[in-house]
Amino acid sequence: MKITITGTPGTGKTTVANILSKKLNLPLFNISELVKKEKLYIEFDSKRNAFVVDPEKLREFFHNKKHFIAEGLVAHYIPSDILIILRVNPKKIPERLAERNYTEEKVRENEEAERFAVIATEAIENSKAKRILHIDTTKRKPEDVVNLILEGIGGKEVFEEVDWLE
To answer: Is the pLDDT score of 125 beyond 80?
Structure first.
């Protein structure tokens, strides 16, 4: 099974992916680390202090892999059986990103990205997945999110309505 997990920073991707990987006994790839290690980037954006991912190189890396979990902002570029989009109330973003040493500007940028569903919209519009799960993590513990994902993997429709603009 090929599982990809995306969402704005602070939605719980890494935590959920780690738990899910252990439960399903699937290898886990953190895309940010992978991009650096395998040089799957086009350039380094010094303003954002991040590598600009080369989608073709990323897809090529996963081309022959049959079973994995890949988590990161651009996970939706990778063909998968299930794409999981994690969401969180934007008001929670500063609290969740507090320990990451992000600049105030970067925290605000991520808060706005979540408010306007930037990552979710891009993921849905450009998905390479057979199925999509869309989950609000705001009031859920990571284990509860994983259990909901397992229900989705089992065939349950898991696509929650999320609108932070109301």
So the answer is: yes
